[in-house]
Task: inverse folding
């Protein structure tokens, strides 16, 4: 949490109204949801930490016991758990067809002399 807070402090020194964009994606059918949230620092004293069955650390609010963070071993990933905002925008992207590599190269005017083998 100290690392997170230090990075947020550094970023807010450069941009006072710092926001985080959250993208939720379902790559099976290319459906997405996106929203913004305020980027904030957290007081470590407000949370209680426990290990879960996967040996990840979970942060729970000391008041109310709400699961708020999950930190994977070795600091590999720090996840902040937030409810999806009511202002979130949902959208779906049409899955593109297969592109023909030869057509792409031809359309950009590719020539063999673009590449030099060393």
Result:
């Amino acid at each position: 949490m100290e690392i997170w807070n230090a990075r947020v402090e550094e970023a807010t020194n450069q941009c006072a109204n710092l926001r985080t964009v959250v993208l939720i994606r379902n790559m099976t059918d290319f459906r997405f949801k996106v929203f913004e949230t305020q980027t904030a620092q957290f007081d470590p004293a407000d949370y209680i930490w426990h290990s879960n069955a996967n040996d990840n650390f979970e942060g729970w609010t000391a008041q109310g016991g709400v699961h708020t963070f999950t930190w994977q071993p070795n600091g590999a990933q720090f996840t902040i758990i937030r409810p999806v905002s009511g202002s979130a925008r949902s959208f779906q992207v049409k899955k593109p067809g297969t592109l023909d590599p030869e057509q792409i190269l031809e359309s950009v005017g590719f020539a063999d002399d673009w590449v030099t083998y060393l």
Observations:
- The chain has a mean pLDDT of 92.
- The longest strand covers residues 19-26.
- Residues 2-114 form one domain.
- The beta strands are 19-26, 31-38, 47-51, 57-61, 67-71, 78-80, 89-92.
